[in-house]
Design brief:
By secondary structure, the chain is mainly alpha-helical. The protein has six helices and no strands.
Length: 109
Amino acid sequence: MLGAPVDPASYDYRRSALDAIHFARVLDRWWQNVRRAPVQVASPRAGRPYDLRHAAVSLWLNSGVPATDVAARAGHYVDVLLKVYAKCIDGQEATVNQRIQAALGGLGE
């Protein structure tokens, strides 16, 4: 039973201390095995965890989220963000042109 008091006379302090010492190694070994799992390597969605991050940043930029907000969320400076992800921004010319026209109050129509 969890949380039940133990009898100090019969409690195995040595075993408990060894478990605490070896737990970090056991946990590390478990993570190593998880990382080697074939399911993770063969995933068609992301070959590396970084690919998911790249996909998220690309999605945000293509959804019209301001570059300053995307950079803050991704932990980039805006100039680095635009240098790396400029090729991902696509298909927004019509929307951008409409915004410019609206900002100019319809001039040039």
